[in-house]
Amino acid sequence: MNHQHSICLGDIHAAAERIRRLIHRTPVMTCATIDALAGRSVYFKCENFQKTGSFKYRGASNAVQLLDESQARHGVVTHSSGNHAQALALAAKVRGIPARVVMPRNASAVKQAAVRAYGAELFLCEPNLTAREQAAAEVLARFGGTLIPPFDHPDIIAGQGTAALELLEEVPALDAVIVPVGGGGMLSGWCLAAKGMKPGIQVFGAEPRGADDAARSKAAGTWLPQTDPRTIADGLLTSLGKLTWPIIRDQVDAIYTVSDAEILSAMHLVWERMKLVIEPSAAVGVAVVLSESFRQLPGLTSVGVVLCGGNLEIPPLGSPRDQERQSS
Amino acid sequence: MNHQHSICLGDIHAAAERIRRLIHRTPVMTCATIDALAGRSVYFKCENFQKTGSFKYRGASNAVQLLDESQARHGVVTHSSGNHAQALALAAKVRGIPARVVMPRNASAVKQAAVRAYGAELFLCEPNLTAREQAAAEVLARFGGTLIPPFDHPDIIAGQGTAALELLEEVPALDAVIVPVGGGGMLSGWCLAAKGMKPGIQVFGAEPRGADDAARSKAAGTWLPQTDPRTIADGLLTSLGKLTWPIIRDQVDAIYTVSDAEILSAMHLVWERMKLVIEPSAAVGVAVVLSESFRQLPGLTSVGVVLCGGNLEIPPLGSPRDQERQSS
C-alpha cells in the first residue's frame, strides 16, 4: 500500500459500502471467441450496464453522498460533455439536491437531453476548456454549491475503484486487469483497489494512440499534458490529473496504446459476439487484450477488462437489407 | 395441463435437466426507462446471450442429446438460413457427431461462415422452400442421419420451453409473458412451460404485422399459412407448424402484432438504453410491451419478455462523427 497518495484501499472499501444500495453490482461476462483470440481467459466487468450507462456513476454517487448537509443543500456543479455529467445529475437527483452542469454548446442533443432528463440544470458554453472552467466558476459564484470534477478528486477515484473490488471478489484468480485511461480516475482507483486486494496483480492502462499522454508521461517519468487529442474514444481525451498522475506513475505496471482501427474492430467484435453495446472508450481495453504485444506477455492466465461504458449515439436502425423470405 | 398435445411440462423439465450443463442459464435484466414507458415492470430473459446467440441452441441441444447412439453416429441434417443452423451445428459438434446444413445460396456470408465455424458441412441450394426441402432429402439419402427441423418437433419445442422455466424460477410473480412467434416452436414451448408452472399466467404471442399468420389463424380458428411475408424480423417469416399450431390455438391467450417501424424503434431503445444487441425478431416482443394496446391491458403488474436472439450483421463501425475534444 502506498500511503503518500491521496486515497488508500480503506477509502475504496468505505466508498463501496456507502454506494452499495445506490449502484448496480454489474455482471462479469466471458466470451469463448475472445478467449481464443486473446490466448487467455478474459473476464469483462460490464460497467456499460451501470446506472447512467457508465462507471462514472460510482464516483459521482460517492462524492455526492459524502457532502455534508450544509454543502449538499446548495447542490453540485460540474463541467463535462460526457458520462460524468449524466452520472452527477442522477447522483444529485437521488440525494434530492440540485445539479448544475456546464456543457459545451456543441455537445450532442442526446447528451444534453440525458442530463436534463436526470433533472440537472444545463448551462451551455463555448467548446473550449477555458470557457468551460469560466462558466463553471460563474455558476458557482451565482448559485453556490460544490464543484465535483470528473476525475481528479479523491472521492471520485475511490468510487471508481469499487468496481475493481467487485471484480476481484467474483474472480479472485485474476493475474492482471486492463483499464482504459483518460484523466485517470478509473485507472488510479482500480490500481489502488486491485493492488490493495491482491499485491501481486498487474495493472495496465489502455490508451488510444491518438491521446497517449499517459503512455508518454510514464515513459518520460514526468507529467506530460495531452494536446490536440485525435481519437474516436471520446471519453479518453483529457490529460492526467494532479492526483491521478502520481498513482499511475508509481503503481501502474504499463500503459498499452492501440490505434483507432483496433478500437473500432474490438468494438465491433464485442457488439457482434458478446451482444453488448459498448462505446469506443470501452473498446480500448478490449483492443489491448487482443493486441499482439499484449498476447506475448507471459504468465497472465486470467485477465480482467473493464467495459467502462455503453453511451453512444446509435443511428436510427432500419433500411433492412434484402430480407430472406425463408427462415429459422 | 393439456394432454392431447405432443409434449407436456414433464418433457420440458426433462429437457432442462438434459441440457443444463450444455447451455448458458441466461440473465434476466430490467430497465427503468422501459418500465416507465410500458407502465409496468418488465423482465427480459436475455437469450441473445445464449450460446450461438439465440434460444435455438436449447431445442437443438435437446434434440441432439436425445438421439440414440446408432442414430447419432450418422449425424444430423437441417435446412435453415438462420439461427437454427448455427444452433444445430454447435449442438452436433458438442456431441461429436456430423452436422449437415442446407442453406439458401443467398444466405449472408456471415451466416454461412458461422455455420462452418461450428464445424458443420454446408450445402447451398436455390433460395426457395421446395429447393431446400429437396436438397435436405438428397443429403439424407446420401449420408443418412436424422433430420432436425427448426421448430415443428417435440424435442425442439421442449428445449425452447426450458428458458421459460428459468424465467419463472427467477421471477415467480410474473402475470404474463410475451413471446415472438414465427414457426411457433418457442411460443408453444413457453406456453406449455409457463402455464404448466403457473396455470393463471397469461401467454401472448408477438408477431410482425407483415408476417401475421399466427394472429390470423387465431382469429379464424383455423391454420392459415404465411404467404409473401414482409418484415424486417427475419426470424419470424415462417408459418406455424402441425405441432405448434394446436398448442397456440388452444393455450395462447392472444397474439399482438406490431409494425416494422415499431420493431425498429424498440430495437433502437434496447440497444441504446439497455446496452443489449438484439436482432429485429427479438425486438418484436419489446414493441408489443410498449404498444398502446398492450399498455391498456389491466391487471398485468409484472410481464416477462424474451429477447430471443442477438444475431445480425453489424456494419463496420467507424466514420467517427466530429469528435469533441474536451471530455469526461
Which chains share the greatest interface?
A: A-B, 59 and 59 residues
N- and C-termini, Cα separation of chain A: 56 Å
Q: Work out the helix count of chain A.
A: 14
CATH topology of the largest domain in chain A: Rossmann fold
Domains of chain A (count): 2
Q: Give the oligomeric state.
A: homodimer
Q: Which whole number gives the mean pLDDT of chain A?
A: 93
Largest sheet of chain A: 6 strands, mixed
Strand order of the largest sheet of chain A: 1-2-10-7-8-9
The proportion of residues forming helix of chain A, as a percent range, comes to 40-55%
Rg of chain A is 19 Å
Strand content of chain A: 5-15%
Q: Got a strand count of chain A?
A: 10
CATH first level of the largest domain in chain A: which class?
A: Alpha Beta
CATH structural architecture of the largest domain in chain A:
3-Layer(aba) Sandwich
| Overall SS class of chain A | alpha/beta
Elements of chain A, N to C (H/E)? HEHEHHEHEHEHEHEHEHHEHHHE
- pLDDT under 50 segments of chain A (min length 5)? 320-328
Shape of chain A: globular
